[in-house]
């Protein structure tokens, strides 16, 4: 494994700020959905995004689409390892 993506703090059971069990925080859900789509699939010009680019764009999308942002909760995605890793590299 050349990289690990995590967060700078724990995400409490049941979501951020103790939301009901089983409900994922909307900002976190938006981040995760966008991250995997952005990293796994090329853009409209056929260019792949690096891990760092996908994280940045997904974080921006999550913060724009939700009133309670990841940053507002003090959560920040953290890349450990190779930040320029492409999805299909091993």
Which characteristics define this entry?
alpha+beta; globular; 90 residues
Task: Describe this structure in a few short sentences.
The protein has helices spanning 26-40, 51-65, and strands at 3-7, 77-81.
Can you offer a commentary on this structure?
The chain is α+β, with helices and mostly antiparallel strands and 90 residues long. It is 33% helix and 11% strand.
Write the layout of secondary structure elements.
Blueprint: E1 3-7, H1 26-40, H2 51-65, E2 77-81
Antiparallel strand pairs: 1-2
Helix pairs in contact: 1-2
Q: Please list the strands of the largest sheet in the order they lie side by side.
A: 1-2
Order of helices and strands: EHHE
Could you report the average pLDDT, rounded to the nearest whole number? 82
The major pleated sheet works out as: 2 strands, antiparallel
Radius of gyration: 14 Å
Strand content: 5-15%
Gap from first CA to last CA:
7 Å
Tell how many strands the DSSP assignment holds.
2
Report the principal-axis shape: globular
């Amino acid at each position: 494994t050349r990289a690990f993506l995590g967060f700078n703090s724990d995400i409490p059971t049941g979501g951020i700020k103790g939301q009901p069990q089983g409900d994922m925080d909307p900002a976190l859900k938006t981040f995760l959905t966008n991250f995997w789509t952005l990293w796994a699939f090329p853009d409209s010009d056929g260019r792949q995004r690096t891990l760092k680019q996908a994280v940045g764009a997904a974080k921006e999308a999550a913060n724009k689409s939700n009133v309670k942002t990841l940053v507002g909760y003090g959560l920040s995605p953290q890349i450990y390892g190779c930040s320029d890793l492409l999805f299909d590299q091993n």
